[in-house]
């Protein structure tokens, strides 16, 4: 198999080896591995890296945004939740007076943030 090491791929694509590893962790590319576990970049991976750079440059995107777009395409539950959020209209709870709605939302956020801060980070991951 004709393939480049991560160093050679970095020189060819103008992505740093660190960025190539980040792109892999983000799930945007999956290089083959040698028997020794080294990343190997073939023509398909090099093309994906070139077109990824064109995409992020043309549309002024971050790699995280492209990764999120990929997740939306693969995860129907996530896509549905995002669609529902985008279509939802804010509504005041019936038991909250209009004059109290702002304070009610502020209190709700304060309580949620306090609960999140009290939860160990490992259980949120």
Through-space gap between termini: 38 Å
Biggest sheet, in brief?
2 strands, antiparallel
CATH topology of one domain: Multidrug-efflux Transporter Regulator, Chain: A, Domain 2
Radius of gyration: 22 Å
Output the number of helix runs.
7
Shape call: elongated
Q: What does the model show?
A:
The protein is mainly alpha-helical and 125 residues long. It has a domain at 6-63: Multidrug-efflux Transporter Regulator, Chain: A, Domain 2, CATH 1.10.1660. The chain is 63% helix and 3% strand. The chain contains 7 helices and 2 strands. The chain has helices at residues 6-13, 17-25, 43-58, 63-74, 76-87, 101-118, 121-124; strands spanning 32-33, 39-40. The protein has a two-stranded antiparallel ribbon with strand order 1-2. A hairpin with a 5-residue loop joins β1 and β2. The protein is elongated, with a radius of gyration of 22 Å. The two termini are 38 Å apart.
Summarize the structure.
The protein is mainly α and 125 residues long.
Summary keywords:
mainly alpha; 125 residues
Question: How is the secondary structure organized here?
Answer:
Layout: H1 6-13, H2 17-25, E1 32-33, E2 39-40, H3 43-58, H4 63-74, H5 76-87, H6 101-118, H7 121-124
Antiparallel strand pairs: 1-2
Helix pairs in contact: 4-5
